Amino acid sequence: MDHYTTKNFMLTQSIGFLLTRSRNLIVAEMDTGLKELDITSQQMGILLSIQQGVATTPFELSKLLEIDTGLMTRMLDKLEDAKGMLERSRSVDDRRVVNLKLTKKGEEVTARIPEIAPQILNARLRKFSKAEFTELCRLLRKFNGD
């Protein structure tokens, strides 16, 4: 079934526009809320991924978070050099592989994220019932092919 036609297509009503606008709202609100931790929402994704063991190399992070490798390198440089929140080391098994580990400061900052992020997301979702929230998540997973 075609949901869009040349007659009914309007930019501001397209799924791409609506998803981008939603993403931008969440990113802006999350960035504001995370200022006290001196991190951005993208950096939060990196720190949580490492903490939870979901991704432990720059390549894995790039793939998971859909961030190009050049930007990922710059973000990791900032988290390591400027903020002291992570450290990189070469794999002993394969010198081409770089492993990432949170520093003590990185662990402390990451431990505080759950105090902030849920409040921000819940504020954005406050008009949704539990059933609507569940359905939204289901539909987004379906849309993403999960």
TrEMBL record:
It comes from the Bacteria. Keywords: DNA-binding, Transcription, Transcription regulation. PANTHER family: TRANSCRIPTIONAL REGULATOR, MARR (PTHR42756), TRANSCRIPTIONAL REPRESSOR OF EMRAB OPERON (PTHR42756:SF1). This is MarR family winged helix-turn-helix transcriptional regulator. SUPFAM superfamilies: Winged helix' DNA-binding domain. Residues 12-145 form the HTH marR-type domain. The keyword DNA-binding applies. InterPro entries: HTH_MarR-typ, WH-like_DNA-bd_sf, WH_DNA-bd_sf. The keyword Transit peptide does not apply. It comes from Paraburkholderia denitrificans.
